[in-house]
Predict the structure.
Amino acid sequence: MKQPASGCILSAVGVDSNNGIYPVAYAIVEQECGSSWTWFLECLGQDLDLSTNSNFTFISDRQKGLIQAVTNVFPCAEHRHCLRHIHGNMKGDFRGVAYKNHLWRCASVTTVPEFEQAMQQLKEFDNEAFVWLAKIPAHQWARSHFTGRAVSDVLLSNMCECFNRWLVDARDKPIVTALEYIREYCMKRIVNVKKNISKTNGPLTPAATKLFEKIKSEAHQCTVLWGGDQRYQVSGKVNQYVVDMETRSCACRKWELTGIPCKHAIAVFYNMSENGLETGEPETWVHPVYLLDTWIKTYQYTIEPLNGRSLWPKAEGMFTLVSPKTISTPGRPKKKRRLSKNEVDVIGDSGKLSSKGKLKKCGTCGTYGHNKSTCTGEKKRSGNVDNKWTKKTVKVKLSPSKKTMVVGKGKKKK
């Protein structure tokens, strides 16, 4: 929050069945600290009827107050850390694209042996970077150590970043006006999603359908070997995995992590259909969270419209609402969101996407490596014509006598 009401907006955003954001809760506090996050999570648990033993999954940045608050309020929850923030902290000592690629390779693999192999490659590349990354528990940032109870393998906290981006215009407003702005935004968002739902057909949501079609196209590249029971051996281009149809799991763990059958499981489905076994539609193997009916149930509740302030009922009891004590910083209040180190390198201070590392093309000669201001080549012209210019001599009447003048604008030779 900016002036006239200083503070900080805390938010909790979920992921819906169509892989979109779903704002769950928001609040305005004095500052982002451990006590504020503890109060916010306690209110969140009361509203959602969550106990201290709830097996929820949180993903956030590495803010120390939030980490301790989640541990105190929900000790059994799975708390993931945003990989982009980990990379931002890593860039303080280890900069370069190579470090970023090693980090993403370690975080993206879905099995423990592949994770250990990726970490070994990082160790051979830079032992100090390996030691720094190994201090962070793997279950907080690596897919290979995630549990499958979240039915999601996201590594970033972009949901909250996307939600905060839409709240920029509310930051310089008074508290009540800012809260009304957020309420109206959530109100309009639910209505827009309901319009998209009314245009959707099929058992799955549009995002899940698109992803599932891609998986089914990749399944034709796999070779299936039946073991005689509910277990199948599926070989791909690189490795082979065991698919257990009884437990609906694959050794690659993608089915367990996302809830959507991997290409190995779909290859087994095709093999079972060819052998005359009863399988049903492949969409029935997808987790119910991606079904269209689940998406409809998620948005069945709407935010009711409210009357203007003049029609609001007066609160009972005599009390005075005092604004929290804040420290005014010198200078003009900033309206834009504070960027992280990683965002500053990509976007820059101007707010525009940086062209650092991109190969520039000259608009004059069409070659790469320089621009028009530093171009030393000849300008390209379309067609086979002579680019020489000639002067055109014309006679004009000038008073008091006739004279002949040369017009500067020439005519092209044909």
Observations:
- The first helix runs from residue 34 to 47.
- Confidence is low (pLDDT under 50) at residues 380-397, 401-414.
- The chain is about 35% helix and 15% strand.
